[in-house]
Design brief:
Structural class: alpha/beta
CATH superfamily: P-loop containing nucleotide triphosphate hydrolases
Largest sheet: 7 strands, mixed
Shape: globular
Distance between the termini: 23 Å
Number of domains: 1
Number of strands: 7
Length: 159
Amino acid sequence: MKGQFYAKDEAAMLEFGQVLFTAMQAQGVVFLQGDLGLGKTTLCRGVIWAAGHKGAVKSPTYTLVEPYEFASSVIYHFDLYRLADPEELEYLGIRDYFSSSMLSLIEWPDKGKGCLPVADIEIELSIKELGRLLTYRSGTEKGALAVVQIEQLLAAVVK
């Protein structure tokens, strides 16, 4: 399953993050792809704020992963941009970050190819007019259900 969303500004990107969080039910793996500066971290901020985090959300470019713990879930925000070799993920204990009770948001997933699980949802960000076009598609059955939920939530917001 596949869909698109046009984020005209930062507020719309944050709103999509909230929709994504709701659709994923705080569980699964989301890949975020797109050039530098297109809003991957902003989208992650929307997801993490929707979960209840009140503070800053910055890209974990140097630490590779930043955990956000909540009463009933954990969100891991990965930024693999500076990863030199996917094998480095094995030293992090990468497999421990992917259980059924966690949501993992992974920026630059191509850098971890071969060490990452299949994404439930992949989101590609690109420039469109003055905003961003988010093209999302499912990679698993869970992702397909989430895409349906995203479409329903977005339709309710647009009305």
